[in-house]
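Customer ticket, subject: "Can you confirm the structure for Ferredoxin-1?"

Message body: Hello, I'm evaluating your service for our small team and ran a test protein. I'd like someone to confirm that this is what the system normally returns, since I don't have a reference to compare against.
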Amino acid sequence: MDNQQLASIYKDILALRWEPVAVRLLRPSEAIPAGVTEPTATLRHCQAIIAARRGWSLYMPPRRHACPDGAAIMGLIPMPPKLQSGELYLLFKKLPTLECARKMIAVRPCFPAGSYEATLVAPLSKANFEADVVIFTLWPEQAMWLCCAQSYNSGERQGFNTSGYNSTCADLTVQPMQTGKMNISFGCYGSRAASDISDFELYLSLPAAQLEIVARSLQKLAQKSIPEARHKIYMPPVMEKVGVQKKNTLDVPAIQINIDAANCLGEGLCADFCPYGVFVMEEQDGRPVPIVKNPERCTACYTCVGQCPAGVIQVLQQ
Ligand code: SF4
Ligand code: SF4
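Agent reply: Thanks for trying us out. I re-ran your input and got the following:
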């Protein structure tokens, strides 16, 4: 798959507001690819990513990096002494002691100075270079689906590494490059103050080598799980009654299950999906229909209601 195809899979399935951003750290002596522009203004790495998600393809040598912390973390320049010592974090009142600042700096993902010569950023669909990572701007539900897609083939849990400091440089660029693993970041003091990421958005960065396999998993999830969850098919119609006190609070809530058997398709999804075996399929008038055999087991999870293709099951709580 090429970058254009990958970008449209992610954009369409997740309903992304913003184009994913391809990021590459230019190796020493590597040629500058065609199609990228050196901006006239200096930008922070987080601001360059915001510009890229709006369509810009940028070549960012150290002279165009406005944030020395970010440029040094990505190995473009040496870390300025006041940032290296941690004293600036105290002046900004972001950390309480030098000891704490030094610890945060020591464990932060970082490349040695001189490792790279520039950063390249571009909207994924237009990226004319091989990305190291791809950065997504997401709301939490979209990030959840990318986590599911990442776990889809391996069954592995995802772990994230962030401190709330140095988001787009350390968390989203260096960390996934060093580990080869997806990372989530919620932004940082600098990126929240200096870019237009909204309060309900977060970032997720994927090593570019995993872009295609995660896209394929996402396509599988889009066949059933994603539309079902987005349609909230298990949302019970009883939310307004949740706080109503019953006369006898020890009463188990009475649950009534109604099936419009005349319109039932008889394929038995209700019986298959019910986690408690409430239904049994039986022949009636020469066709299979679900019988509510064990109503006392029902917990009103609404799985059968959500899965029934004919919409003929009603689960009522009195
Ligand atoms: S899922 Fe619905 S249509 Fe299918 S057997 Fe059950 S009640 Fe009938
Ligand atoms: S609501 Fe849940 S527990 Fe009750 S019958 Fe349907 S699937 Fe089974």
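A couple of notes from the result: The mean pLDDT is 93. The radius of gyration is 26 Å. Feel free to reply with more questions.
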